[in-house]
Amino acid sequence: MTEVKMTVNGREVSGDVEGRTLLSTFLRENLGLTGTHVGCDTSQCGACVVHVNGKAVKSCTMFAQEAAGADVATIEGQAGADGSLNTIQQAFQDYHGLQCGFCTPGMVMSAAALLKENPKPTEAEIRNYLEGNICRCTGYHNIVRAIMAASGQDVPAVAAE
Amino acid sequence: MYNFDFEQPASVEAAVAALQAEDTLPLSGGQTLIPSMKQRLNAPAKLVSLTGIDALKGVSVDGGTLTIGAATTHATVAAEATAYPALAALAGGIGDPAVRNRGTIGGSLANNDPSACYPSAVLGTGATVVTNAREIAADDFFDGVFTTALEEGEIITAVKFPIPEKANYQKFEQPASRFALTGVFVAKTADGVRVAVTGASEEGVFRWTEAEEALSANFTPEAVDGLTASADGLISDLHGTPQYRASLIKTLTKRAVAAA
Amino acid sequence: MPKDHGIGASPKRREDIRFLTGAGNYTDDINIHGQAYVHFLRSDVAHGTINSIDASAAEAMEGVLKVFTAKDFEAVGGLPCGWQVTDRFGEAMQEPKHPILAEGKVRHVGDPIAAVVAETPEIARDAAEAIVVDIDELPAVVDMKAALAAGAPKVHDDLTSNLCYDWGFVEENKDAVDEAIKNAAHVTTLELTNNRLVANPMEPRVAIGDYSRGTDEHTLYTTSQNPHVIRLLMGAFVLGIPEHKLRVVAPDVGGGFGTKIFHYAEEAFVTFAAKVVNRPVKWTASRSEAFISDAHGRDHVTKIELALDADNNFVALRTDTHANMGAYLSTFAPSVPTWLHGTLMAGNYTTPLIYVNVKAVFTNTVPVDAYRGAGRPEATFQLERVVDKAARELGVDPAELRRQNFIKPEQFPYDTPVAVSYDTGNYHATLDTGLKMVDYANFEARAAESKARGKLRGIGLAHYIEACGIAPSNLVGQLGARAGLYESATVRVNATGSISVLTGSHSHGQGHETTFPQVIAEMIGIDESQVDIVHGDTSKTPMGMGTYGSRSIAVGGSAMFKAAEKVINKAKKIAAHLMEASEADIELADGQFSVAGTDKSVAWGDVCLAAYVPHNYPLEDLEPGLEETAFYDPSNFTYPSGAYFCEVEVDPDTGAIDILSFNAADDFGNVINPMIVEGQVHGGVAQGIGQAMLEHAAYDENGQLLSGSFMDYAMPRAADVPSFGVDHSCQTPCTHNPLGVKGCGEAGAIGSPPALVNAVIDALHRGGYPVEHIDMPLSPSRVWNAIQSVK
């Protein structure tokens, strides 16, 4: 076991890990931050996406020790201190961009990374950027609309008028 | 996965020294190695991470040569290899955004997955692979599926690309993995045209020499019309027959020439 | 103006807050103090005889608590099958034992042989690798027709063959159908497969068993769509634990799509093992493990013949299907290709004579069971493909051929020749809506534009029917179901007027926590925030059958409605007492009880308080309290229907398909929450597109799964699908449930595959490539191969 230290959602944390301890395992098991989900073992589903030093990564495909000293952001750190949803989270609720919720943390973190790189993405850019995030419930339609809305672009209302 | 010791040296020398230990593997972005370790297909006693070595990172241009540090991520190449747009575009199409933030050019080349994108750019450009010990020409580097000219303990430090007059990469994605079902990299330089094909052959990346000759004489899509890529030795799997891949090689070559 | 509350409004989902902040409580998020972990050693061969299992090295490893094999389960039962099909000759289907751990033989890749319980998941896996299993590999049967050939290897040695059943429906019609087809003016024939799929909810399955010596109580936390069904099956048939000592909890569940209906070996294992090792035992499936242990879906091979008269009227239909059961009978497997499939073969049409033959076959593959749509997609696909082919052969517009043969609005209720009675529908209306949505009239101009770019454009249509809201218990009992299919609800009014609804339905993405309160709020006239839904815990909710078959609102919602009606009726009695009026004069609106024709009123909350603080209360006539339970058993299925249109562009050089538009015009009857209904259609359509062009659980001839991870099993991604057009303005309410609802969960997955395939075939024909059929998935290589075959 090796002690690893990092900053997670602005808080200094540490824990004992093995070489094989994945960042996702460290977050879920050591820190109890179970919002980061694991939906596959081939680095494709993206339910585990977190930000490491500001970049979206798949936390199931990175060892905890590789994140030593890093600044890590997870879904648990996205809402305001008073619990209010951030712009992206609120848009996902407003536009029904989630159903079972399992892929949602990774979707929100990927969306945040996209909007940092590209504040006004087109529909095609959003769809292409989500290549590494699989959702089985929504058919992506409302996820795309939520991200459009979060970027301040016009989106038709969700339900039939 | 099996447990292992983790080491993260800060210099190439320290990494090379650490790699002398038995059952030790270098770890770069880990986007292929870690999934294979989860499946217990790889069981190193020690992993030596190369991502802590600043000397292995970065994109630079010197005259007609673009040099990329081995531990440079795909995302960085996509953003910074502006002097070689076809290469930047290729890097921007590997995996997905999160994978591109971790995966590196050196890791991809050392792994030499038969469906990876980078080998086609290196072979298609006639690039030079620089290691801690020597420089290896692209034509000598790739040595069949998942095999390269790298010796045990030898690590890639950089890749030097001569910037071509024109180039383009056409990737036809395997629908599940999003690796190349077939990918064709075409580059035109003063010395002629190179055409490198990935994803198609059981032997890994290869050059389509007939197309190179035809395109060196006449760099237009029509120059390829009369040619037929051979289906011999091409991959047959759930996603396509050898004949299908042969057809894709020709179609993608024409599209690459048109887009270059 | 759209409504802003109650039935028909689209309030934001309240469950989203926890899912969006990482505060969901999925089964893998639960850790119990002292828990151990299990790893299953699974067969890597499809068929073999187990000669010996030597676990001594594994048992000696530090951190290993116990290694289990079949011997440890001699005293318990196998996994039960919940549906018995009777064959054409009146005989019961062949039903093999399905042990928790393999007994003597392994029958598919992934069949569990042994299980290691250890201190950590990694130790358990390390130890499982140290178990030495001596297996003599046997020839595997994978292809269904080969499995039925004389001399084929038998999956189960104690059965007479690999034939589970040979089912004929309606058997009495067989000769008449044969005769009609022989004498028809035109017969269109099509042979096709319905590709095997893996449901792949994003949350892999997890199970945690916990046992209390102090109370002799077992608790199972599991990723289930129906915790009461699991408790019943596992308690009564497998482990022999009475219900009052067994609690099953299905907390937040990350998608189900059918594959989390069934009772699985891992659930029984952790429940059993927790008592043996006296520690909680946790199992978390990896995705790779899910591919070889979750029940698969579909996998039919069919020949269908449609006979028409000289005026293009459908006169008879005959289908012949082989349905793969896999190596064992999963919980509801036998019902899927029979009662959920044959009964839908009339589609939307007046075809008077129909005969369906289904041979269910055992093979050395993972068991196959219900997956979103379950039988109805298989029926719809073959029917809507053969109708399209008939239109082409006859040179008529496919939309008009359908319209000509539709059941007309005035013909409802309509008794089909395949035993079901459609209560309501208006297929002309959904078709017309769909035609407008896709601008059918201007398609030719769009096709010409594509052609100018070297692309082939095509348009495809499918019109589906489905039977939802399963279903009348007495009917399904006659058909072989070994369970009732009612639903339950308790409406528990609290002293200050807030309400907890305990429901047997289970939400794993459907949004019940938001929609169910909309109904209660509408009925009483109080704010939705005053109503909460409790589900997913057998210790809290009355016995209910869970969520599948688009049944939650139609059956579970109706149960809730009935319970709420009882509550309101009692509350009216209390209100009458408080206002010293006659009960018959009491009206309830906007949360106020009033006396008709007067200005006297009393608020909902005051009546509730009176029920629990019964100082001024008719105690001699009425018990205190305000809590009622209802069990609702429907009298019929519900029958949603709709028109689905897909427009595609095919690249003839690569075979790649680009979906340009996808439009769905559905009739779901009354709609509680349009936002959620549309989301259900979006998700269903994406899954149908996945089946039609991406997904395939493919086996090689040795029974190895070739697409055993997301590296080879192509899941639909955001860029594979377009934005969808959806419409549910055509509403013919269900006549036999109190809410007039039909259910919307499966429609998208049912209507979309034939629409997409029809579009691609249309594109190829228009492009000069007369391809009659391509089996799903329509991968680029398959489309390219088809083009080459007609060049």
From TrEMBL, chain A:
| Keyword Metal-binding set for record | yes
Looking at the record, the residues that make up the 2Fe-2S ferredoxin-type domain are 2-78
Read off the InterPro entries from this record.
Answer: 2Fe-2S-bd, 2Fe-2S-bd_dom_sf, 2Fe-2S_ferredoxin-like_sf, 2Fe-2S_ferredoxin-type, Beta-grasp_dom_sf, Diverse_Oxidoreductases
Source species, please?
A: Thalassovita mangrovi
Q: Would I find Oxidoreductase among this entry's keywords? A: yes
The protein's UniProt keywords, in alphabetical order, are: 2Fe-2S, Iron, Iron-sulfur, Metal-binding, Oxidoreductase
Which named protein is this? 2Fe-2S iron-sulfur cluster binding domain-containing protein
Superkingdom as given in the UniProt entry: Bacteria
Task: Provide any one GO MF term from the record.
Answer: 2 iron, 2 sulfur cluster binding
Pfam families in alphabetical order = Fer2, Fer2_2
UniProtKB/TrEMBL annotation, chain B:
Asked if the record carries the keyword Isomerase, the reply is no
Q: What is this protein called?
A: Carbon monoxide dehydrogenase
Quote one Gene Ontology molecular function term. oxidoreductase activity
Per UniProt, the keywords (alphabetical) are: FAD, Flavoprotein, Oxidoreductase
Q: Which InterPro entries did the record assign?
A: CO_DH_flav_C, CO_DH_flav_C_dom_sf, Diverse_Substr_Oxidored, FAD-bd_PCMH, FAD-bd_PCMH-like_sf, FAD-bd_PCMH_sub1, FAD-bd_PCMH_sub2, Mopterin_DH_FAD-bd
Domain FAD-binding PCMH-type residues, every copy: 1-166
Q: Which SUPFAM superfamilies match?
A: CO dehydrogenase flavoprotein C-terminal domain-like, FAD-binding/transporter-associated domain-like
Is the keyword Amino-acid biosynthesis assigned to this protein?
Answer: no
TrEMBL record, chain C:
Q: Does the keyword Oxidoreductase apply?
A: yes
Keywords attached to this Swiss-Prot or TrEMBL record, sorted alphabetically, are: Molybdenum, Oxidoreductase
Q: Which GO terms describe its molecular function?
A: iron ion binding; oxidoreductase activity
The answer, when asked if Membrane is one of the entry's keywords, is no
Q: Where is the Aldehyde oxidase/xanthine dehydrogenase a/b hammerhead domain positioned along the sequence?
A: 21-139
InterPro entries the record matches = Ald_Oxase/Xan_DH_a/b, Ald_Oxase/Xan_DH_a/b_sf, Ald_Oxase/xanthine_DH-like, AldOxase/xan_DH_MoCoBD1, AldOxase/xan_DH_MoCoBD2, AldOxase/xan_DH_Mopterin-bd_sf
Q: Which domain of life is it from?
A: Bacteria
User: Which SMART domains has this protein been placed in?
Assistant: Ald_Xan_dh_C
What protein name applies here? Molybdopterin-dependent oxidoreductase
Instruction: Name the species this protein comes from.
Output: Thalassovita mangrovi
